[in-house]
UniProtKB/TrEMBL annotation:
InterPro entries: Aminopep_P_N (IPR007865), Creatin/AminoP/Spt16_N (IPR029149), Creatinase/aminopeptidase-like (IPR036005), Pept_M24 (IPR000994), Peptidase_M24B_aminopep-P_CS (IPR001131), X-Pro_dipept-like (IPR052433). Its cofactor is Mn(2+). The keyword Secreted does not apply. It is an enzyme of class 3 (hydrolase). It catalyses: Release of any N-terminal amino acid, including proline, that is linked to proline, even from a dipeptide or tripeptide. One of its GO terms (biological process) is proteolysis. It comes from the Bacteria. It comes from Candidatus Lloydbacteria bacterium RIFCSPHIGHO2_01_FULL_49_22. This is Xaa-Pro aminopeptidase. CDD domains: Prolidase. Pfam families: AMP_N, Peptidase_M24. SUPFAM superfamilies: Creatinase/aminopeptidase (SSF55920), Creatinase/prolidase N-terminal domain (SSF53092). The lineage of its organism: Bacteria, Candidatus Lloydiibacteriota.
Length: 432
């Protein structure tokens, strides 16, 4: 019945917004980096999810109702822009390939505005997603009526949260590429290398395997105390014997993100304090992953991880409390584990979808269901270590990407080793 998955998604959204409502979903525009050089283009994720269209400056219009109708407006190259950007796809091909009901290649924002107005003027409700800049997107600003923009974003977020078989296949492959890259790095790392050399190896692995030009996020390659800076991306330091290396890196494949973190010793051998803290994080992570089942709330995973982290912190003397529950209640663990345990993963690394956040309990109450993909990523970052100095400046995070299925959690990123003995023996092979 549907020409492709994008047409099916537009149809589903059209049914949900209903008769009398029009949704306007702008794609992204380009941005100049300097003079005439552009930043690499990345399509808006909602727009891509509903169209599959990868060109800049386009607009999707969906008329809601029992028989939804979708129209694509896009920027058509003229004779002079064609020379640099190539020929634009024709409207007939856009309809045939992408399954729109109508498509219009336009050369100016004025034309777009007139065409869109002629349709939206008859609608009771006009809802836009985000107001991106750019000539095509700004031409539709001000057309929104009855403030339903948030609803549309919410509805698309809920659709994107549950991955279909095609998306799961892509994300499985993305995690395979990234997991293998993390694994292969273990054979390469040696004291004296620079963080950026490791970053370059990851990029090479991602691109050679067909990953998108932009990775899912800037790679974090953080040695020693740099790992205590959560979003360290300078990647400029030299790796030193005796330090740990934290790598948080994931390719993007066919638009979908992977997000993996591993931490291991630069020398290939753990020292005692490093291994002690590593095992605390690993335990917290494996226990939380075990709980990632249909019907369990995403907040519960965080509770489990925090409890095991707090238990470890108490044991090594980094905090003092009656017991782990008391430590968590007083947020003592937050000094060393200052971020959440999980986030949704999809087209965006921090993907859309409601967490059902309860302000009173400060808990994400969304229940896990089949087809969701989320990260589980506890960490420990010891910036100060009163009374337990041997742990100072150690930063550890372990992060996997988990698919929720009826038969339990599936670790899509399993190729990246995390067992501390396995890491040691693989690294020893690399040092030979
Ligand atoms: N790489 C970003 C994150 O782990 O959330
Ligand atoms: Mn993450
Ligand atoms: Mn990450």
């Amino acid at each position: 019945m549907f020409r492709n998955r994008y047409a099916q998604r537009r149809h589903a959204l059209g049914l949900r917004i209903g008769e009398g409502c029009i949704a306007l979903i702008p794609g992204n525009t380009t941005r100049l980096r300097n003079r005439d050089v552009e930043y690499p283009f990345k399509q808006d994720s909602d727009f891509f999810y509903l169209t599959g269209w990868q060109e800049h400056d386009a607009l999707l219009l969906i008329k809601g109702g029992e028989k939804p109708c979708s129209i694509l407006f896009y920027q058509k190259n003229n004779k002079s822009t064609e020379l640099f950007a190539g020929k634009s796809i024709g409207p007939k091909a856009a309809v045939r390939i992408f399954g729109f009901d109508e498509a219009y290649g336009l050369t100016s924002a004025d034309l777009l505005y007139k065409k869109v107005r002629s349709i939206t003027d008859h609608a009771q409700v006009v809802a836009c997603t985000s107001a991106h800049t750019g000539p095509f997107a700004s031409a539709v600003q001000g057309l929104e009526r009855n403030g339903r923009g948030h609803d549309i974003k919410y509805l698309i977020g809920e659709m994107r949260l549950i991955k279909d078989a095609h998306e799961i296949d892509i994300m499985r492959r993305a995690c395979t590429v990234s997991g293998a890259a993390h694994r292969d790095i273990l054979f390469l790392v040696k004291p004296g290398m620079y963080e950026y050399e490791v970053e370059a190896e990851l990029s090479r692995a991602f691109r050679r395997a067909g990953g998108d030009p932009l990775h899912a996020y800037p790679s974090i390659v953080a040695s020693g105390k740099n790992a205590c800076t959560l979003h360290y991306t300078r990647n400029s330091a030299q790796l030193k014997d005796g330090e740990l290396l934290l790598i948080d890196a994931g390719c993007e494949l066919e638009g979908y993100a992977s997000d993996i973190t591993r931490t291991f010793p630069v020398s290939g051998l753990w020292n005692k304090p490093q291994r002690t803290l590593y095992e605390i994080v690993l335990r917290a992570q494996t226990e939380a992953i075990k709980c990632a089942k249909v019907g369990i709330s995403v907040g519960y995973l965080d509770e489990v991880a925090r409890k095991f982290i707090a238990e470890g912190l108490l044991r090594v003397g980094l905090i003092t409390a009656k017991d782990p529950d008391d430590a968590v209640l007083r947020d003592l663990d937050r000094r060393f584990f200052p971020h959440g345990t999980s986030h949704w993963l999809g087209l965006d690394v921090h993907d859309v979808g409601d967490y059902a956040w309860n302000k009173e309990t400060a808990r994400a109450e969304r229940f896990l269901s089949e087809g969701m993909i989320l990260t589980v990523e506890p960490g420990l970052y010891v910036r100060e270590a009163k009374g337990a100095k041997e742990y100072k400046d150690i930063g550890i995070r372990i992060e996997d990407d988990i698919l929720i299925t009826r038969s339990g959690p599936v670790t899509l990123s399993h190729l990246a080793p995390k067992d501390p003995d396995e890491i040691e023996s693989m690294m020893q092979c690399g040092m030979l």
